[in-house]
């Protein structure tokens, strides 16, 4: 595993108002993610044969627009420890995305927010 960015999240105050924008401008496609408690859409940015990553679109908790990148890791708990040992912090604890894996959000020593993700189809 290369610890690469594998997903991005766009958070905006009203996600439904930007779906047409990204569809019309960039030809991205959106599919509602039903395994989530809130409004969330998976974004396909292109063909799986093309370079790049896909992402998601959701509602911003604080009403501000932002993008958060998620890095795939082998073990979320292990990486949270590494992040703490190197001056970062865990701001949203590890939680399951049912049938997909585990996700936590952290900040680097300068306050940049990022996600760490561990794939696990048995996550509940």
From TrEMBL:
Pfam families for this protein: Glyoxalase (PF00903)
Top-rank taxon, per record: Bacteria
Protein name: VOC family protein
PANTHER family documented for this protein: GLYOXALASE-RELATED, VOC DOMAIN-CONTAINING PROTEIN
Residue ranges occupied by any VOC domain in the UniProt entry: 4-119
Organism the protein comes from: Sporolactobacillus shoreae
């Amino acid at each position: 595993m290369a610890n690469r960015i594998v997903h991005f999240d766009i958070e905006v105050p009203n996600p439904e108002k930007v779906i047409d924008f990204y569809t019309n401008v960039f030809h991205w496609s959106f599919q509602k993610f039903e395994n989530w408690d809130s409004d969330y859409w998976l974004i396909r940015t292109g063909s799986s044969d093309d370079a790049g990553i896909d992402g998601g679109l959701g509602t911003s908790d604080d009403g501000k627009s932002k993008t958060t990148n998620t890095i795939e890791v082998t073990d979320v708990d292990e990486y949270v420890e590494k992040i703490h040992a190197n001056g970062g912090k865990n701001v949203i604890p590890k939680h399951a995305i049912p049938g997909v894996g585990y996700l936590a959000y952290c900040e680097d020593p300068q306050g940049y927010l990022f996600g760490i993700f561990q794939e696990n189809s048995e996550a509940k």
